[in-house]
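Much of the work behind modern protein science is quiet bookkeeping, done one molecule at a time. The fold becomes a row of whole numbers, each drawn from a learned catalogue of backbone shapes. The protein below has been through that process, and both of its lines are reproduced in full.
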Amino acid sequence: MALPTWPAGLPPLRGLASSAGSDSLHPEAQSTQFDDGPDRTRRRTLFVTTPLAMQLRLSPAQFVAFKAFHLNDLNTGARRFTAPVLLPDMSIGTRTCQIRGKVAWSAPKKFEYLVSFTLVVQDW
């Protein structure tokens, strides 16, 4: 089954200037203790995932499209998807992503929505 794709009518996942950042550039290494000898430390996964704080400014039509995509295509965040994301070299590239945790939204202006979530990007 193919992964869903970020809808073309939504902005690329670069976030607002104040929302960019991550609390963990790379996942922590996993340690195993042994009765004799030093602990063994290794990577947890075969690929690196980076959680990024996202905040998107959406129009009412974009908000409806995002809500439908999150609910129907992503099964409220359970599925992975491909999307254009802002990469460390400031270019836009397509990566496999997943929305982790809850999605918060607010409407600070009459015809504008702010949507916030944690985007986990594979091989960012």
